[in-house]
Amino acid sequence: MSDQNQVRLIKKYANRRLYDTQTSTHITLHDIRQLVIDEEPFQVLDAKTGEDLTRSILLQIIQEAESDGEPIFSSDMLRGIIRFYGPFQGMLGNYLEKSIQAVVDIQAKTGQQSSQAWSDYMRSQLPVMQDLMGQYVEQSKQLYLNTQNLFGMFPGFPGTPGRSDKDKKSEDDDKA
Hints:
Elements: E1 8-12, E2 18-20, E3 25-27, H1 29-37, E4 42-46, H2 54-67, H3 75-84, H4 89-110, H5 116-151, H6 165-175
Parallel strand pairs: 1-4
Antiparallel strand pairs: 1-2, 2-3
């Protein structure tokens, strides 16, 4: 197996330091972020237990990036993601993964990944993209609500067809 195909091993010690076994040096989260950008395969393991900490480290990198500059995730978006944990998390995870992969594929096909031209283009397309995503989200929401209504999953859910004015008045009386 060539060096390019080998997974780079990073060990995390109790003192929270990260050690790159390939270069025999201590590294930072910024260095690991660069490995991600360079698409270099790596794995982070707890030096003592051998536990895989890769996801945890990647989440730390995202948290740092969200704290600096303009965040990707709004508070409302994070609340929405949290609500999906449970019975629908597999569906959301799969959707997000495919959506991000589609963006990466588009970047790769245009040959402009990480270039200023791509950034400028995306900035100019932002209003169009936001409008399209807004339409998509609204259509997805309607599809989801229609599916719930079809199967009668939430008969008392606001906006459910078939709710009589009596049901609404009874609900209002209960609140009073």
